[in-house]
Design brief:
Shape of chain B: globular
Order of helices and strands of chain A: EEHHHHHHHHHHHHHH
Helix content of chain A: 55-70%
Strand content of chain A: under 5%
Helix content of chain B: 40-55%
Oligomer: heterodimer
Number of helices of chain A: 14
Strand order of the largest sheet of chain B: 2-1-3-11-6-12
Strand content of chain B: 5-15%
Distance between the termini of chain A: 62 Å
CATH topology of one domain in chain A: MetI-like fold
CATH topology of the largest domain in chain B: D-Maltodextrin-Binding Protein, domain 2
CATH superfamily of the largest domain in chain B: Periplasmic binding protein-like II
CATH architecture of the largest domain in chain B: 3-Layer(aba) Sandwich
Number of domains of chain B: 2
Shape of chain A: flat
Number of helices of chain B: 19
Radius of gyration of chain B: 22 Å
Distance between the termini of chain B: 57 Å
Chain lengths: ~325, ~425
């Protein structure tokens, strides 16, 4: 159908306009017009992915933990036997305690140093961008690679740190960095802090940059010193971000595997095992899959409580 | 070597008869996982042999080399997922643990034993599970103590100590001079158990009795821990608790330790790198290295030599090809060439290789490796090297018992802890 779109008899222009079909026959509503169907279609890929990569492995893990499965043997249902066995195992108890100790101290160090770094980087100085970018290096380098480098630095025979301390006159005998359980765990905490601190710093820096400078200015005018400005202005506004970062870090650190696996292998004499490395030692290296799965499932209640507390606290903050 | 001669030598008669490669589907791949050899030239030789085998068998034969400490996790993952390499390297008594995931290769074992003079007892015991060979014995890496002759001479010791007590006395003197003994008590596949098990046996201790019941709570076991604790403090490099199988090699070659229990890899590395690896006088270090067997304890002078085998995985889609390959690979031709490259680091799983011409021309310090496997006991002793013994090994219970003593536990406490761990495994 052609239709005039400009007025005036001398300059009439005609353009083609599509004829509405509806007028000739009634249109059937498309299947995707139905909200329920559309929601189902949109959610299906997510549900499939979650099912395949989260639900299935989790359910398999629980089943394995309740069975006597070992390498090449399907096993039978044994109830809570594997959990009881793990709980009565002195190495498991050491690993459980180590995991709490390692997570606690590493998180404290990462938070304090990360906060300090974020506050420093929030200031204006020459080369700020370069410093911010280079700060991320430990976080970018693959953990296995950087931990190998640390392992060399802590090497029982050729440690460059021992060499420096000896040459500097600080020590007479080599420090047993990795050949003593206590030293080994502290070395692991140091490496974890080095690796995880940039995550804290960059996240807290992002939080700091959302704080309106006027608030600090107003506090200054009221006579607040640096500490008061931090405690009464920065910290309350940074708390929600900090909480999220801390919880993410606790989850990652509590289930850490690669760092200990490469640095100490859980040794000497099982003294630096974490739950994850011990579960691997029993389940994968020794082939006792049921027992290994039970050991790893001990992480679940602890992490569940941490996440629950975080969500509860955040909800309270939102409500305030 | 001409192709015809090669085929004849390797005994692939069917191939010769047909005048063509066997009828494996085109593009069939055979994947073999082995450890990274301590003699790098051995792996180079195997890569060469992969090409030869590919032509001979009409399939694409590929080796993959991984850290020995990663082999067990790899095997577990492969069996559980029912996918992965067709053939995997088996150390120690692992075939007992992985029995359900392996193909019976008794026919090949019978052929190899007959052709090559019979297996060493530990090679047979480690691969024969319930009367069937579940892996094909390949080689043994004997462990002897590598030591610095000149440093021992300096303190008036011209032959290696014959008893553990003498070793402790000599080691203490050398440690005072800045030359400690190097020994790992870490969680590592070879050097740690090769020291720990014989120490237990030589002081009269045993993991189990003949019926397979836990028997570690004994005076002998406590004496072994007691010796280890004193030896560690008086004579050893105390960093050894964190060593793996490579640390003692590096420490010895760097002149940091006076002696260490090891395969021949230290000597061979020193020999092949003699332009660079020198002693404190600037002479090639290799000229100052000698080897000796482990000293004797009150109950004997047993050793532990690591046995190696190849297991065909049950999930493999090409079990026939895998077995054909093993027959080729373990044949006197290919094995002989690999054996010569190893220069005594690896010896045969069968006794025929004790008579190989290599031993006539080998350096005198290496001659002891020829018959070294003749005094090896097996894990699980005095019981059989069962799957449970493999579990004890995989959890490093015997090694950790000694390490606990070194870390301050009393001998009785350390033995009691080990007994508890063994009871969980053996059930009695």
């Amino acid at each position: 159908m052609k239709k005039p779109i400009a007025g005036g008899s001398a300059t009439r222009v005609e353009v083609a306009v599509a004829r509405p079909q509806a007028s000739s026959r009634p249109q059937r509503p498309g299947l995707l017009e139905n909200e329920r169907v559309l929601a189902g279609v949109l959610l299906t890929p997510t549900v499939v992915l979650l099912g395949m990569f989260i639900a299935y492995p989790f359910v398999m893990g629980v089943w394995l933990a309740l069975s006597s499965t070992s390498v090449g043997n399907p096993g039978q249902f044994v109830g809570l036997k594997n959990f009881v066995k793990a709980w009565n195992d002195s190495i498991f108890r050491t690993a459980f305690w180590n995991t709490c100790w390692y997570t606690g101290w590493a998180t404290i160090f990462k938070l304090s140093l990360g906060m300090w770094l974020a506050i420093l980087l929030n200031r204006n100085f020459r080369g700020k961008r370069l410093v911010r970018a280079s700060m991320l290096l430990p976080f970018i380098i693959p953990t296995v690679l950087s931990t190998f480098a640390w392992r060399w630095m802590f090497d029982p025979t050729f440690s460059v740190l021992n060499w420096l301390l000896y040459r500097g006159g600080f020590i007479v005998n080599k420090l047993p960095f990795l050949s003593d359980g206590t030293y080994g765990l502290w070395c692991a905490i140091a490496v974890n802090t080095w690796r995880g601190m940039p995550f804290f710093a960059i996240s807290l820096l992002a939080g700091l940059q959302t704080i309106n400078p006027d608030l600090h200015e107003a506090a200054s005018l009221d006579g607040a010193n640096a500490w008061h400005r931090f405690w009464h202005v920065t910290w309350p506004l940074l708390k929600p971000v900090t909480l999220v970062v801390v919880v993410f870090s606790i989850i990652q650190t509590f289930s850490d595997f690669q760092l200990i696996y490469v640095l100490t292998g859980g040794g000497p004499a099982n003294s630096t095992h974490l739950i994850a490395t011990y579960a691997y030692q029993i389940g994968v290296a020794t082939g006792l899959l049921g027992e290994g799965a039970a050991i790893s499932l001990f992480m679940l209640p602890v992490l569940f409580v941490v996440v629950w507390l975080q969500l509860r606290y955040l909800r309270r903050l939102e409500g305030a | 070597m001409r192709r015809r001669a090669f085929l004849k030598l390797t005994g692939t008669a069917g191939i010769v008869a047909a005048h063509r490669a066997p009828a494996f589907a085109q593009g069939t791949r055979l994947h073999i996982v082995r450890w990274v050899d301590f003699i790098p030239a051995c792996d180079v030789e195997l890569k060469k042999q992969a090409g030869e085998a590919s032509k001979a068998l009409g399939a694409d034969v590929q080796f993959e080399f991984i850290n020995a400490n990663d082999l067990q996790p790899r095997i577990t993952a492969a069996i559980q997922s029912q996918s992965g390499a067709d053939i995997i390297h088996m150390l120690h008594n692992w075939p007992h643990l992985y029995e359900n995931g392996l193909v019976d290769v008794s026919d090949l074992a019978e052929w190899q034993a007959k052709e090559q003079g019979g297996f060493y007892p530990q090679s047979e015991a480690y691969t024969k599970v319930n009367g069937r060979f579940m892996a094909l014995p390949h080689s043994i890496v004997p462990g002897l103590v590598a030591y610095r002759k000149s440093w021992f001479d300096e303190i008036g010791v011209t032959t290696f100590p014959k008893t553990y007590d003498d070793l402790r006395t000599v080691g203490a003197k050398l440690k005072k001079k800045g030359h400690p003994y190097g020994q790992t008590l870490g969680h590592t596949f070879g050097d740690a158990p090769a020291w720990a098990y014989p120490l237990l046996w030589n002081f009269g201790g045993a993991e189990t009795d003949r019926s397979g019941k836990t028997a570690i709570e004994s005076k002998g076991s406590a004496e072994a821990v007691k010796f280890m604790t004193a030896f560690w403090k008086d004579a050893c490099d105390e960093g050894g608790l964190a060593w793996d199988d490579t640390n003692n090699n590096r420490a010895f070659l760097a002149g940091e330790i006076c002696a260490t229990l090891n395969g021949a890899s230290i000597y061979i590395a020193a020999k092949r790198g003699q332009d660079k690896i020198k002693d404190e006088r600037g002479e090639p270090l290799v000229r100052d290295i000698q080897h000796a067997r482990l000293p004797a304890g009150p109950a004997g002078s047993w050793s532990y030599h690591t046995a190696f085998a190849h297991g065909v995985m049950k999930y493999s889609k090409n079990p026939k090809l895998a077995k054909d390959f093993l027959k080729w690979f373990h044949g006197t031709g290919p094995f002989g060439r690999w054996f010569e490259v190893a220069e005594g680091f690896s010896v045969g799983a069968t006794k025929q290789w004790e008579r190989h011409a290599l031993w006539n021309s080998i350096d005198p310090p290496m001659k002891g490796f020829r018959t070294a496997p003749d005094n090896s006991r097996t894990m699980g002793f005095a019981g059989p090297p069962s799957a449970k013994a493999t579990e004890v090994y995989s959890k490093y219970v015997i090694v950790d018992m000694l390490a606990k003593g070194v870390q301050g536990a009393s001998p009785e406490e350390a033995v009691r802890w080990a007994a508890g761990e063994l009871r969980k495994i053996y059930g009695a």
